[in-house]
Amino acid sequence: MASHIRVAIDECLSDLIPNFLERKRDEISGILTAVARHDYQSIGDTAHRLKGEGGSYGFDAITEMGRALEHAASIGDGGTIVKVAHQMRDYLNNVEVVFQATED
After folding, report:
1. pLDDT in tens, 1-37
2. CATH number where 56 lies
């Protein structure tokens, strides 16, 4: 993955983004723990939230990875879950948020 991935986010979300990204990192750790237990239900639940929250905050890549995780959880594909979880961790570690003023 690229060393810096720029994502333009509405500046009205600037107070929320740091905690949002930290929660996503924690959720990835939880997914990796759950896959070791074959707990596909909790992975699917987390993935569903990722899918919805990503776009809401302006991170379309998180939505897409959440979609892939949700599908992998639904079929019990632990290998894909681990792969996508690592991709998301890389994304979160390399995303650079650029806040932009809302156009009225």
Report:
1. 457 899 999 999 999 999 999 999 999 999 999 999 9
2. 1.20.120.160
Identify the domain containing residue 79 by its residue range: 17-97
Cβ–Cβ contacts within 10 Å for residue 66, how many? 25
Q: What is the pTM of this model?
A: 0.91
Residue 86 lies in a domain: yes
What are the respective helix, strand and coil percentages of the chain, to the nearest 5? 70, 10, 20
Please list, in sequence order, all residues whose beta carbon lies within 8 angstroms of the beta carbon of residue 83, skipping any fewer than 6 positions away: none
- Whether 45 and 82 have beta carbons less than 8 Å apart is answered as no
